[in-house]
Inverse folding.
């Protein structure tokens, strides 16, 4: 009952005209950036951070929540009409949705994606309401050693499990941690990595780094690849669904939600794996398996629901533990810090009204998105005709303005350019951006927990595994790291059956309830399945299949 | 010698193409079709897709006209692409399609047609849709 009354209070805050307006702005912006390939909710939230500082924290987070959910909706439009996934979690939607659109069923594909996203988003948010307080209760009892272990797990899992190359992932993570180290050591007062530069003593501002990596890096990258043959967009009217479409869609929506939420909530879940799983499951359960690959509505409904439910799931560790698992959540976490709000298990206690207003605004934003997206899909598609030089010039201008306004220091602009160049080089060499941002944001906090642990144990390293939960988490970490080796050895022993069995575990993995240790299994097997379809002989190596996944320059959209 | 036609998959573009084909029949010269985009937007409706181009080439083959279809995407605007092709293929005539515009609309929007008219060194034939 306590939860319900807090949530109602949250609705009361979120439904004030001003906050509704910010929710609407967030939803519109989010959809717009979701539709445009290359720019996404993380970049948008980063660009808006300096602006948001003048707002009430509640209004700012309501707007960010709208952007976050809106990005998920917008991505499906681009996938379906253009066959270019607006973001990594709509890759699957692009497969089946674009075929549907080519077969003249674009309106139905858009409708099932939008309504499915709404259903999944709403159920996901409801699950968030139920589960987050439980996780908080558990998390409050955690000591520094356990907390440290969980953060290590989150960092390693995101780096090792997601993305095509572990080496690149870890390189990016290292960069992020190093940038997070710059400044004065909070315990000893020593200067670290400041190169005698007094302006660096306060550390690098997260806003400046986020803007540089997401906005400047992406803008430079696009500028370097500006000219390309225009793509064909499939014209579409107002989305609608017939009775048959509803009948074929509602089960995939629910199943997609069931896949999406738990994966989103795991420290390395992400939205890609559940969309793969949902697609494979729908293909198996469908009464029309022959339509898959030619535009089956189930193949759009399921994955779209899964990625929205995952988006909701991601907020569980973010709000309950202060652990972000995707780029947008990471930047939102940075926003908490900017407002002087301490993320972590105490967030609900200290900032209850804000958090509940944020959660209530997720319900509201979801409804707004449905209202905005169903009738306006053709209008959103027009955004794709925007000449990119104007778009990116605007982004660069806004990025510069934002970076300067944080501290009114010209030095920050130098940092912006240097780190922006780094962001460009990372895209050039296929380094994922997510581990860097996570390392940057979690780095200082992980260090604090480590310091605390070691101080409590008087410098004894064994203090790190002094709590049982910490030990369990370290075992999971070891499994995550050792998994590829084990998998390789296992495949060498059973070279023929490996692939066939791999297909089977895709369905078996989630049925087993998906505890944390199961995660890598699912990731590896799904990574194999697209290659399986393409090469059919099952001899393709992991590296090849990873390269074959249709990623935009080998990394997730920011 | 050749006839250059600036083609876009719209009513105006088709009108220009129709007229260019009849001119090419008359003078028995080669028809060069230019369909270009700056390529800076992700979607450009004025850039013809493969299916559209196939229909055009089929039609030209049926009519027995010596033709060349160019689709340069080099970041130049369409006017410069047409003018460059006119130079390169020694054009005797450029055919373009024109939209109906009010003088005020013309004042605000720059025009590809205007640039071609002003800068071309050969006669330019401007065609309107439905004429």
């Amino acid at each position: 009952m306590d939860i319900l009354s807090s949530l109602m209070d949250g609705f009361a805050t979120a439904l004030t005209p001003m906050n509704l307006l910010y929710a609407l702005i967030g939803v519109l912006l989010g959809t717009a950036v979701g539709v445009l390939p290359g720019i996404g909710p993380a970049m948008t939230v980063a660009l808006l951070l300096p602006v948001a500082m003048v707002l009430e924290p509640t209004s700012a987070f309501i707007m960010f929540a709208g952007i976050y959910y809106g990005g998920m909706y917008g991505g499906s439009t681009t996938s379906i009409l253009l066959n270019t996934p607006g973001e990594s979690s709509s890759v699957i939607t692009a497969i089946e949705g674009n075929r549907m659109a080519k077969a003249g069923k674009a309106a139905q594909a858009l409708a099932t994606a939008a309504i499915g996203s709404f259903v999944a988003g709403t159920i996901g948010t409801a699950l968030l309401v139920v589960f987050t307080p439980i996780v908080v209760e558990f998390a409050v009892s955690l000591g520094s050693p356990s907390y440290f272990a969980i953060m290590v797990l989150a960092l390693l899992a995101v780096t090792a499990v997601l993305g095509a190359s572990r080496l690149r992932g870890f390189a990016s993570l290292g960069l992020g941690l190093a940038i997070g180290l710059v400044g004065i050591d909070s315990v000893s007062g020593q200067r670290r990595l400041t190169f005698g530069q007094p302006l660096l003593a306060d550390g690098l501002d997260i806003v400046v780094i986020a803007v540089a990596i997401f906005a400047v890096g992406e803008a430079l990258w696009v500028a370097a690849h500006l000219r390309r043959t225009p793509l064909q967009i499939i014209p579409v009217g107002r989305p609608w669904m017939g009775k048959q479409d509803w009948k074929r869609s509602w089960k995939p929506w629910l199943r997609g939600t069931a896949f999406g939420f738990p994966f989103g909530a795991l420290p390395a879940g992400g939205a890609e794996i559940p969309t793969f799983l949902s697609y494979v499951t729908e293909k198996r359960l469908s009464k029309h398996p022959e339509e898959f690959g030619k535009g089956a509505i189930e193949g759009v409904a399921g994955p779209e629901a899964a990625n929205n439910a995952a988006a909701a799931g991601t907020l569980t560790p973010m709000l309950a533990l202060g652990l972000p698992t995707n780029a947008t959540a990471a930047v939102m976490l940075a926003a908490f810090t900017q407002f002087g709000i301490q993320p972590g298990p105490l967030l609900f206690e200290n900032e209850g009204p804000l958090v509940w207003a944020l959660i209530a605004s997720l319900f509201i934003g979801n409804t707004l998105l449905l209202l905005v997206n169903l009738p306006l899909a053709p209008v959103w598609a027009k955004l794709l005709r925007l000449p990119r030089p104007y778009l990116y010039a605007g982004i660069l201008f806004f990025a510069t303005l934002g970076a300067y306004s944080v501290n009114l220091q010209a030095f920050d602009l130098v940092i912006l350019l240097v780190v922006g160049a780094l962001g460009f080089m990372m895209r050039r060499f296929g380094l994922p951006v997510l581990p860097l941002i996570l390392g940057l944001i979690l780095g200082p906090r992980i260090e604090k927990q480590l310091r605390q642990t070691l101080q409590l144990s008087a410098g004894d390293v064994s203090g790190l595994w002094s709590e049982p939960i910490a030990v369990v988490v370290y075992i999971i970490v070891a499994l995550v790291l050792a998994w590829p080796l084990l998998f390789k050895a296992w495949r060498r022993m059973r070279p023929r059956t490996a692939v066939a069995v791999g297909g089977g575990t895709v369905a078996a993995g989630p049925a087993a309830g998906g505890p944390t240790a199961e995660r890598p299994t699912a990731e590896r097997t799904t990574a194999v399945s697209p290659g399986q379809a393409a090469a059919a002989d099952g001899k393709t190596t992991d590296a090849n299949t990873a390269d074959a996944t249709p990623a935009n320059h080998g990394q997730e959209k920011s | 010698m050749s006839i250059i036609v600036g083609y876009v998959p719209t009513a105006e573009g088709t009108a220009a193409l129709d007229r260019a084909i009849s001119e090419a029949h008359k003078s028995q010269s080669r028809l060069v079709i230019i369909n270009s985009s700056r390529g800076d937007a992700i979607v450009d409706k004025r850039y013809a897709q493969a299916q559209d181009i196939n229909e055009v080439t089929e039609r030209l083959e049926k009519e027995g006209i010596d033709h060349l279809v160019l689709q340069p995407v080099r970041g130049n605007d369409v006017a410069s692409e047409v003018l460059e092709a006119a130079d390169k293929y020694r054009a005797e005539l450029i055919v373009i399609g024109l939209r109906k515009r009010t003088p005020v609309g013309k004042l605000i929007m720059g025009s590809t047609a205007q640039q071609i008219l002003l800068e071309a060194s050969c006669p330019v034939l401007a065609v309107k849709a439905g004429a």
